[in-house]
Design a protein that fits this description.
The chain has 158 residues and is an alpha+beta fold. It has a single domain, classed as Trypsin-like serine proteases (Thrombin, subunit H). It contains 3 helices and 8 strands. A 6-stranded antiparallel barrel has the order 1-2-3-6-5-4. The chain has a two-stranded antiparallel ribbon with strand order 7-8. Strand 1 and strand 2 form a beta hairpin.
């Protein structure tokens, strides 16, 4: 659990700086074989890094966006694999922020993982709150006025 929170803090730091100072890279600028660096925490509170190689990208369309896939090629990730607590870890290419580690595959023998592009994350900050305070959301079973229906959107966390 501590690993997840620390990874979240690391990616929030990169996202906050991505607006102003950190150069970013769109997913269509990387190609299979390109090298990336993942910044994460394996133990304690020390940020560590490991290298990976791009395998390709999958564009799931408007509903899910693009996921870039990579395989770890160095460091502790070769021994431990990619853990769920690494989600949110920044992924860079030549000092440019590509995105954040967002998915892994349980019981996979290879340390393969998915990367959500930074452009998609920054775009989520730009969306205004679509609901009015107190309005219920509409789910499959009709209006939902439970606690999740009125959760603040990403913009509230900036």
């Amino acid at each position: 659990m501590r690993l997840s929170w620390l990874a979240l803090v690391v990616v929030q730091t990169f996202v906050a700086r991505a607006d102003a100072a950190v150069p970013t890279m769109p997913p269509d600028a990387v190609h299979p074989g390109d090298r990336v660096v993942v910044h994460t925490v394996f133990a304690g509170a020390t940020v560590d890094s490991f290298e990976a190689v791009i395998l390709g990208a999958l564009d799931a369309g408007r509903s899910s966006g693009v996921t870039v896939f990579a395989r770890a090629t160095s460091g502790e990730a070769l021994r431990t694999g990619v853990a769920q607590g690494m989600s949110g870890s920044p992924v860079t290419v030549n000092g440019r922020l590509l995105g954040a580690l967002s998915s892994g595959f349980a019981f996979n023998k290879e340390p393969i993982f998915g990367i959500t592009p930074i452009g998609e994350m920054l775009e989520s900050f730009a969306h205004p709150d679509q609901t009015k305070s107190g309005d219920p959301s509409t789910g499959m079973a009709g209006p939902d006025d439970g606690p999740l229906a009125t959760m603040p959107r990403w913009g509230a966390y900036r």
